[in-house]
Amino acid sequence: MTAPTRVLVADDEPLIRLLLRHTLERRPGLEIVGEAADGAEALSLIEALQPDIVVLDLSMPEPDGLEVTRRLRAARNACGIVVFSSTTGAEPAVLACGADRFVDKAAGVEDAVDAVVALSALRGPGG
What keywords appear on the UniProt entry (predicted)? Predict the structure, then answer.
């Protein structure tokens, strides 16, 4: 049996975190290891929990998701990054900073989870 892909969700909206958590938990092979409400908490939890994939919102406080992505890549953190955001026109900047996927919140939570599943498949067992 392969290890599950460990996922951390970071969004300042509790309802979005709840929807992501419930949708991710229904997918086989994924394990939610933590949730963060802002960028500082996300960075701390990523360091402590070492998730395989992080789902990030861009408009989180202190620092925002784009800065979290920059810091993770500058630190050579190999976790996958799926940005799930309603920030219009942000996709080019997000991908240029090192995120693996961008999903517009207007597409829905299922699309974000599909992106996590696809990234998990590309990364191989356990991540």
Answer: DNA-binding, Phosphoprotein, Transcription, Transcription regulation
Q: Which amino acid is at 116?
A: V
Q: Which domains are present in the chain?
A: 5-122 (3.40.50.2300)
- The angle formed by the CA atoms of residues 18, 24 and 30, to the nearest 5 degrees, is 135
What value, to the nearest 5°, has the Cα angle with vertex 117 and ends 111 and 119? 105
In degrees rounded to 5, what are phi and psi of residue 55? Answer: -105, 120
State pTM to two decimals: 0.94
Residue pLDDT, tens place only, 10-55: 999 999 999 999 999 999 999 999 999 999 999 999 999 999 999 9
Edge-first strand order for the sheet with 80-85 is: 30-36, 5-10, 53-56, 80-85, 101-104
Angle at 84 between CA 32 and CA 63, to 5 degrees: 90
Distance CA 39, CA 72 (A): 11
pLDDT band at 88 (very low <50, low <70, confident <90, very high): confident
Strand 101-104 to strand 5-10: parallel, antiparallel, or no bridges (unpaired)?
unpaired
